[in-house]
Amino acid sequence: FSLFHLVSSTVNTKLPAINIPTPTLSSQLTQISHILSLSQETPMAKQYQTLFLILSISYLFSSDLTAATAASPAGVSKKAVNFIQSSCKATTYPAVCFNSLSAYANAIQTSPKRLAETALAVTLSRAQSTKLFVSRLTRFKGLKKREVEAIHDCAEEINDTIDRLNKSIQELKLCGSAKNQDQFSFHMSNAQTWTSAALTDENTCSDGFSGRFMDGRIKNSVRAKIVNVGQETSNALSLINAYAKKY
């Protein structure tokens, strides 16, 4: 079992050619929250999580699906696409932002709240797939003690990231039901804090793989995944801040 085999099998995995309607933002967030709320001790929870993570990895590494996401499909509101593109220009990684969110244009429309919620949901999905990838690294034979420690530490940081992103999603949902400015500001501040904390966790994980003592293949693979999650998190935080200013 090698890193090459793991990456190759992941990259070459493609979803079957079936017609699946574009998920609405509401159904996506409901599914994610339901999966994460299930007890991890039950077999059913593990099955749901495994299926969800496999689909996430297939999405991340399928070149066909990536190309389809970047394009504007027929029937998508041009106004919504332009809104997403314009909003993404204010983020740190505008290309990553647009490529990740443009597929959800019909659900987002021109709502800053839905845009921020979708950005968090996408980031959470990326973090979940990264967690699976990192956890599989411990199967490699011949790892040095320091490498094993770095992998375990990184896995813990990613778990913290997932927990904080999920809390941020919940706080952002509460912003939508706020009855006054004070309530909105309270929940918005919490969402910003949790998302910022998630970004710190990702940086800590990446730092753990620095240094010459680390296997180059492992270091490069993990850091590539963490960088992607970090970019998505940074963009999500920017869009949350933009939503806060619109209230």
TrEMBL record:
<keyword id="KW-0732">Signal</keyword>
<dbReference type="InterPro" id="IPR051955">
    <property type="entry name" value="PME_Inhibitor"/>
</dbReference>
<protein>
    <submittedName>
        <fullName>21 kDa protein</fullName>
    </submittedName>
</protein>
<feature type="domain" description="Pectinesterase inhibitor">
    <location>
        <begin position="79"/>
        <end position="239"/>
    </location>
</feature>
<dbReference type="Pfam" id="PF04043">
    <property type="entry name" value="PMEI"/>
</dbReference>
<dbReference type="InterPro" id="IPR035513">
    <property type="entry name" value="Invertase/methylesterase_inhib"/>
</dbReference>
<dbReference type="GO" id="GO:0046910">
    <property type="term" value="F:pectinesterase inhibitor activity"/>
</dbReference>
<dbReference type="InterPro" id="IPR006501">
    <property type="entry name" value="Pectinesterase_inhib_dom"/>
</dbReference>
<comment type="similarity">
    <text>Belongs to the PMEI family.</text>
</comment>
